[in-house]
Amino acid sequence: MTEAIHYQGIDELHRDLADVQAQRRTARVAAGLAATATVVCGSLIVAVLAVGYWPDQPPTTLRWMLLVAIAVGWFVAIRALVVRPALWRQTPAQVARYVEAHDRHLRNGLINAVLLADDTGQPSPQLVQRAIQETTQRARRLDWSDTVSFRRSRRWACAALAAVVAFGALVTFQPGPTRRALLAVAMPLRYVARDNTIKLTRLSPRDTALFAGQPLEIIATIDNPQGVPHVAEVVIDGGQVHTMLPTDSNTVYAASLGPVQKTLRYAVQIDDSRWPVDRRWYTVTVIERIKVNSMAVRLTYPAYTKLQPRVDDDFAGPIKAPAGSSAVLTVVFSAPAPGAQIQQRQADVIPMIRSDDGRTFTATIPVDADGAYRIVVRDERGEVLRHFPNQPNGDEERGEFWPITAIADRPPTVRFIAPGGDVSVGQGGRLAMQLSVADDYGLWAATIYAATDGKSFRPIHQVDPSKLVGGRLDYVHRFDDRLQAGDIVTYYAEVADGRDLPGVGGPQTARTATFTATIRDAAELADQRAKRYAELRRRLTALLKLQAAQRVNTGLCLSVHTTVGQVVETANAIAAAQKAVRAELADLASNFPFDQHTQAVHFVLAELAGNEAATAIAQAGALSGLAELARRERLAPALARTQEAIIARLETLLAVLAALKTTDTERDPAAGGDLSADAREELTRLKAALDEFIEAQRKIVEATTALAKTPADDLTADDRKLLGELAAAQDKWEAFLDEVFTDLSELARQDFASPLLLKELLSIKTDITMAKDALSAEAVEMAVSLEEAGIENAQALTTNLEKWLPDTPDRQKWSMEDPVDSDSIEQTELPTELQDMVGDLLEEEEDLFDEIEDITSKWTDSLDEGAGWEAADGPISNMSAQGVTGNVLPNSSEISGRSGEGRTGKSSGEFVQDEAVGKGGRRTPTRLTGEPYQAGQVRDSSAEPPGGATGGGKLSGAGSEGLEGPVPPPLAKELERMAAQQAVLVNRAERLAGKFAAGDLAGMRMLETVTLMNRVRNDLARYRYRNALRIRAKTITSLRDAAAALGGRVDVVADVTDALPAHLRDAIHDAAEAPLPAEFRRELEAYYRRLSRRADGK
Does the keyword Transmembrane helix apply (predicted)? Predict the structure, then answer.
């Protein structure tokens, strides 16, 4: 194996040759890069010249050809001119040969030295070493850099520079075509933006979405300071062209395309400029109209409010909730929507979460402060489709908003109801405190503090807020027995709520004013209180008497006075008295020293003076100005109702005054305690008379008991005298008890076990001619003895009425002797229908005189044949319902039996017709009859003045007020049941009243309610249902007032119109009905139109 010989100097030659090789590669790469740059810039220049100035979109084929050619050229140039020179390599021998070729002084020594050094088989290494050293010495004198030529690189560099300068000039001076050409070649399938010469500043609506049938208007604004006119058009995809009309300045061009029913594409072209520049068309997408089908909200309140979340499935839009709440809004649209968001005024936009169906959207809105929001529906490009509330495609700047109202948690309130000021308390006594507390969401603490003689305050009572009822705090404080007269105790109350809102604050507190309680002698205080109560009762009683007298005067004005002068004179007196009543009420309310127990009376008196008493003065003034007598029918009843209300309030005050004297509110009001003074006086006299009657009856019974033991034949003169005195006394008391009875004892007895109702078949009314001299006929008395009387007593009806009527008035007086025995009269089977004959009355009631009136008899019969031959009168009662009404007035004597409708008069018995229409007659006097209530109901359509007997019979129409007597059994049972229920209610009300403070307004209202409820109970128990109905409204009103006062929901309104002139008061009262001013018509129309849109949720 031959070892390689390392010759000295050969390494230096190799380094020099390597440097030459590197320089040659660098020169070739530089030349290749310059050539490539020349090719690139040249190809780009060609592309710009080929497609940059194309008037429309360059052909796709040309664009592809250019792209391929440029790509291939660039690839070949880079590969051949850059990559290959960079990878080019030569051996040292090749480099040595290249150097020797450029420097002939080296001859072949350099190549020989390189080859000999690599030849390991040389026989003489010394000769080789010497040859290498000589070559090395000659190479050191050689300039190696001169052997490499850069001429080619410089030529390509010049070519590249020229190409770059040319392309730079295009970019600088023709940027539009250059950019367009580059884009066209780089993206042959895409739209190439145009190089417009006109500057567009604004174009609407560009790409948009419209609802079907919505109008489309395209507006383009250009930069045209010189106002040069241009030709502007809207080009529709499909060939249609719409001319755009310019404004006077030629800066705004517009075209209206009308309602759009389907999706279209358009472009705007002004001269040679066209938009859009980045694509061929704008797109107007027509979509289904979107409406809100439903809105729902779930309000979640702050935890400290302890309010349960509330869900409103029929949400209208406005949000109102306590501050710190959150509202989860869910909206369901009529059609799928691309997207929606909550746009708040002066707050961040809240995106809405879209459901899978695209119709339901949800978002959470924080309620931290007052604000407003609306729902914005957008398309995929973010363009606004619609606002809610707003019209479709509304302008974002002018759109309406739904309000967001954040209800701030107000501080709590606390005040003393009783006592309402500084008080005096007896030694060792108790002070009933009553606080009215309120907070929006409940209290967390309530404490009463007290201090004695200037010492520091300390808590004397702490209340669990959860035990507060109706916003009231009741506490009875017992003062220390060690306190002496003259000591002063100062006290106040403090409450706190539970507010806990981050960033807002914690609990809020409030406290009452500071009051004092002065310790005094207990006996002295009790004496002063008793005097005040007595004085208050005296003045209220005097007021009641004065007001009751004016109610009587009002009744005189309504019913008694016959001239305007009489009414005006009495009305003036009423007005003066009503002013005195109000003045006294106002003086009591302002100046009387009410204590904590009667403080509620103070409220009632002030209310009475400001409301009913003031109204009564105005009504009395209107009555005193009466000009026509007919107007009193409207004015007097209104005044009477107001006066009755005042009387009722005063009576109630007097009734409950005793209960207010102490704190014990469970005491029952005394029987009759709510009656007026006049009624009480009448009852007192009646009671005294009845007591006297009872005593007289007792004496009569004792006297007759002694006389009963003596035979009549053995009576002495004194006994007979006593009997006469007893008879006279009995007659006296009988007259006392029976003074209103009529001669009903003379009537025949009648059986009402089988009541009937029959239909009237025919009512014939004929025009008749009064017989000559009929009115001047003398009265004839027809006396009938017992022997001449007889009865038919028919068992069946076989005949009908004849069809004729008398033509003479009744001038006969029948006087029949009573029968010896009471016969049993047949109750015949009545026909299914009745027929009646009625004529015009031949006389009026005032034409009659007593000499012709028949005398009531006990005769009764069941008539058949002949009962209807003539409309004759007489005292015999008929049980067969046969007869004719006739055309003469009935007699004033009592008649009985069974009958259909005829002339009205004194009668009793059974009415067997099912309808009453009113056929005239004479007025039946009001008296208590004895017939029982019967089954059936009569349809009463009579228009005659109501009147008549009060008693049993069938149910019919309403009449005037009658005498007190029995009520129908069903009604009586119902009234008894209602009275029992009312008693239960009274019992509950009395127990509830015991929980009220006596001096509280709510306690006062509750005592009034108990008094009125007792009166209703008594009226129902006595079947006085009209009285109960009359008091019912007052009772319910009083109970509602108590509930309102207890809940602190009483609003006090001060009416200051009293001090205004009359013409100003009239103008204020008539403002609601007067027409609106014409000059404000436009503003008012806009205001109400806006309100209507808000109500519709738009």
Answer: yes
Residue 909: which region, alpha, beta or left (left: phi > 0; alpha: psi -120 to 50)? left
- Calculate the CA 967 to chain-centre distance: 45
Q: How are beta strands 319-322 and 310-312 bridged, if at all?
A: unpaired
Residues 755, 935: contact at Cβ < 8 Å? yes
**Distance (Å, rounded) from C-alpha 657 to C-alpha 680?**
17
Q: Any idea where the domains of the chain sit in the sequence? A: 10-173, 196-287, 292-407, 413-520, 525-588+598-622+633-659+669-675, 680-737, 741-962, 971-1046, 1059-1096
Which residue, chain included where needed, has tokens 């001013």?
1077
Say what the pLDDT of residue 252 is. 93
pTM exceeds 0.90, yes or no: no
Looking at per-residue confidence, does 875 or 848 come out higher? 875
Q: Matching CATH topology for 292-407 and 413-520?
A: yes
pLDDT band at 572 (very low <50, low <70, confident <90, very high): very high
| Residue 773, pLDDT above cutoff 80 | no
Peptide bond just before 205 cis, omega within 30 deg: yes
Tokens matching residue 377: 């529906």
Do 880 and 830 contact (CB within 8 A), yes or no?
yes
> Which residue type, as a one-letter code, is found at position 1082?
R
- pLDDT at residue 739 is higher than 60: no
Phi/psi at 284 (nearest 5 deg)?
A: -110, 110
Structure confidence at residue 767 (pLDDT) = 40
Cα within 13 Å of Cα(254), Cβ side = 9
Going by DSSP bridges, is the β-strand pair 933-937/953-955 parallel, antiparallel, or unpaired?
parallel
Average pLDDT, stretch 355-382?
A: 90
- DSSP E strands in 817-931: the ranges are 833-839, 860-861, 877-878, 898-899, 910-911, 915-916
Within a 10 A sphere around the Cβ of 692, how many other Cβ atoms? 12
The region of weakest confidence among 366-380, 942-956, 1023-1037 is 942-956
Q: What is the pLDDT of residues 687-696, one digit of tens each?
A: 677 777 677 7
Could you give the count of Cα atoms lying within 13 Å of 997 in the half-sphere of its Cβ?
26
The answer to which of 389-398, 438-447, 1020-1029 has the lowest mean pLDDT is: 389-398
Q: 360-367 and 325-333 as β-strands: parallel, antiparallel, unpaired? A: antiparallel
Strand 759-766 vs strand 833-839: parallel, antiparallel, or unpaired?
parallel
- CATH no. of 292-407: 2.60.40
The mean pLDDT of the chain is 76
CATH number (2.60.40.10, 3.60.40.10, 3.40.50.720, 3.90.1860.10) of 413-520 reads 2.60.40.10
**224-272 pLDDT, tens digit each:** 989 899 999 999 998 899 999 999 899 999 999 999 988 999 999 998 8
Taking CA atoms, 6 is separated from 16, 96, 528, 969, in Å, by 17, 19, 146, 154
Strand residue runs (E) in 895-952? 898-899, 910-911, 915-916, 933-937, 939-940
How does DSSP classify residue 53? T
Give the per-residue pLDDT at 996. 65
pLDDT for 533 beyond 60: yes
The top-scoring range by mean pLDDT among 93-97, 214-218, 791-795 is 214-218
Nearest CA to 224 out of 204, 195, 200 is that of: 200
Helix (H, G, I), strand (E, B) or coil at 101: helix
Residue 98 contacts residue 147 (beta carbons within 8 Å): yes
Is the bond preceding residue 389 a cis peptide, omega within 30 degrees? yes
What SS3 state is found at 1067? helix
Q: In the prediction, which pLDDT does 492 show? A: 93
Three-state DSSP string of 184-213: HHHCCCCCCCCCCCCCEEEEECCCEEEECC
List all residues 6 or more positions away from 542 whose beta carbon is below 8 Å from its beta carbon. Answer: 584
Classify domain 196-287 by CATH number: 2.60.40.10
Under DSSP, the state recorded for 273 is E
Give me 733's structure tokens.
Answer: 């008391």
How far apart are the C-alpha atoms of 722 and 699, rounded to whole Å?
Answer: 12
